[in-house]
Give the backbone structure.
Amino acid sequence: MGTSGSLLRRGWRRGWRLAGGLLIGACTAVVELPGAAVAGAALLGVRAWPGGRPAARRRVERAVTAGARRLAEAERGRLSRFLGQDIAADYDDSGVRQYMAVRWSLGLLGGLVLASVAVGAAYGSLLLWGWFLISGGEWMTITASAIGGLFLLFLALQGIVGVALLEGQLARHFLGPSAQEALRRRIDELSTSRAGVVDAVHDERRRIERDLHDGVQQRLVALGMLLGRARRSQDPDKARALLVQAHEESRAALTDLREVAWRVYPTALDEAGLRAALEAVAERSPIPVRLEYGLTAEPEEAVRTVAYFVVAEAVTNAIKHAGAEHLTVALTRSEADTGVAHTGVAHTGVAEARKAGAGVAGVRRPGTGVAGQATARGGLLLVRVTDDGKGGADPAGGGLLGLARRVAALDGRLRVASPPGGPTTIGAELPCA
């Protein structure tokens, strides 16, 4: 019942948001239509006028393009805020002029659809209050009008979603990159992601070597020295004490070795699943960790592996550097919105992570037209780790940069919000197939 109520509330909110976006779009269309007519007449005049000067033509084109860009930026904001359509800002002058020349038609269509919603709702409501107006045999007319109004309302509500989708497609067609440009960007992203994964593997190897050298190796050296001293000792009591120390040192070496093996890859992740592995991380933590596991199905292997390492690294950083006293780990699944979906996948670029300050690591590259299939089919696995420490975490630091590379390999996004004084929140969005 709670889930149904939540879905209903989300549906209502989304419906009102779409309707508000179309209403604003209809209002801007009233401005865009005469603007497109004036701009078209001006461009036609300077281009068709015999003996027209090139300088005058360029001035008119610059003025028209500047106005079109201002309107396009307003439309991009409306599409993103109300319709859930993220459009890239790197469009060319020709595309923006063509977009503003035709966008007004969809704006007026959206206004017509909203008017149809109002008319359908008004006639459909006759079933509630129209009976008080019946005189003679008018009940058939009122009933037919109400049924027709409800049918019109149903079609108009579907039309709201349809117009919203058309708005996004029109903007992507004129403002988005071409197929070749989108492919080139995707290749660049994959190349960067691959280089980041290679760097992450090298960093992990160096970390393993450092853990073995500084931890396990030192304990084994101490163990060997204790055994050597016990072997050379002539005093049985002293030899027995040295053997007891050697036994304790061997147990400590085994514990360190298990820690290193666990950090390389926890066997519980394959044997018992993601939840059990995260519960083990919480149990091994010296500070309280609250786990909020909201997944009903086990993620695929690549996704659960990255999710595990995001949590493990975030918990380790909070313990070592943040001085935290409490941690909260939350995993939820965000299902894909089949009505109006984002047009691209949120990527965590390695270069962007290096440039990030103590704010957000990651950048959204919407509107590429290539990625985004995983989001549209399976939604996102959302991982969030929050601590109450001192804050000031650096997204370009070694540990978080390695996480950014892991997340980028799955076309995901890593966010780090860590203001001075805390709290620190590390969030990852991982596309699911």
